[in-house]
Write a structure and sequence with these properties.
Elements lengths: L9 H41 L6 H15 L10 E5 L2 E15 L2 E13 L6
Antiparallel strand pairs: 1-2, 2-3
Length: about 120
């Protein structure tokens, strides 16, 4: 019977396509998480350009709040964003974890970290 078989059998296709389907499904589940991260990065970059002369961390946090509300960012909140003094300006850091459920009790865990320098000159 082996001499008549050509190509991949149905079971062979299942074995080949199952990992591809799992990776594709994981990509679909991770897409909203990464799109949210892109919104956070965009908001932080806009805060860095808006807060050029700001000396008050509350004003920077208010700007973050405004951009998060406009972009509809629910997580992280503006309270999760660290604003620390760095020389003449401020470092605004968004460091957070997010999860995307995959199957049953299996989920994908993603760690994000973005820092921008707002106000003043210099910085990393």
């Amino acid at each position: 019977m082996r001499f008549r078989q050509r190509g991949v059998t149905f079971i062979g296709w299942l074995v080949l396509l199952t990992p591809l389907a799992i990776v594709g499904y994981a990509g679909v589940r991770l897409a909203p998480v990464y799109l949210n991260y892109m919104k956070v990065v965009r908001a932080l970059n806009l805060v860095a350009s808006d807060a050029a002369g700001s000396t008050d961390p509350r004003a920077i946090r208010g700007t973050i709040d405004k951009h998060f509300e406009i972009d509809m960012v629910d997580y992280p909140t503006s309270k999760d964003i660290k604003v620390t003094r760095n020389g003449a300006g401020w470092d605004v850091e968004a460091s957070y974890d997010d999860e995307a459920p995959l199957f049953a009790n299996i989920s994908l865990h993603v760690v994000f970290d973005k820092t921008v320098h707002a106000g003043g000159r210099g910085g990393p």
